[in-house]
Amino acid sequence: MLLVIDSATAACSIALIDGDRLVDERHALVGRGHAEHLLPMIESLLGTRRPAAIAVDCGPGSFTGLRVGLAAAHGLAIGWQVPLSGYSSLAVIAAAAPPAEAGIGDGGGDQVAVALNGGHGQIFVQTYDRDPLAARDELRSLAPEDAAAVISAHLVIGSGAQALVAARGFGQAIEALPRAADVRLLPLALRTLPPRPLYGRAPDAKPLDAQPFEAKPSAPEAAA
Length: 224
Description:
The protein is of the alpha/beta class. It contains five helices and eleven strands, in the order βββαβαβαββββαβαβ. The strands form two sheets. Strands 6, 7, 8, 9, 10 and 11 form a six-stranded mixed beta sheet that branches. It has a five-stranded mixed beta sheet with strand order 3-2-1-4-5. Helix 5 links the parallel strand 10 and strand 11. Helix 4 (144-150) packs across helix 5 (161-168). It is globular. It starts with a strand and ends in a 50-residue tail after the last strand. 42% of the residues are buried.
């Protein structure tokens, strides 16, 4: 069985999957505080069961939630001595997308765009072909008005979907967050990525420019 860990967004989601069958899951919208929720949820889900492998959401998403999930997944994989793989939060949302509205021409129904809130007024965006599921373009972090110029799929799904569709003035927007159980819908190639972060944009913290150290003479000690 495969244990799936997803804490890259406001959702804290875990699932136990056997092949393409969902065995059990826990899913909650926690906003913040993934560190407090994740391990108790895993313990509750597993009971006495032990997975043969682990998959973890590598992002993009919340820097803190992403790191919590990756740290837990790496720790459990080492402790249990089981293989660990990763997947993209955008890909798992795309895999679970419903069909587009009827009457969409020019192949619009064959594609789905994913838009996730990324902070600083930007959204993470990527377009996927549906059958087979595969990325059509690169992952980008853009302001909604800039994303509107490059994302043409009629159906947009994710926490940033409304902002993108409003900026474009057309399309269908569906609110969604990653769900661990939906990893079973991903093709093997999209759920066996290296288990390392996909941040989508540069970290907020900037390194300070290195300044040369200049030793200053010590003040003379006062006589006793």
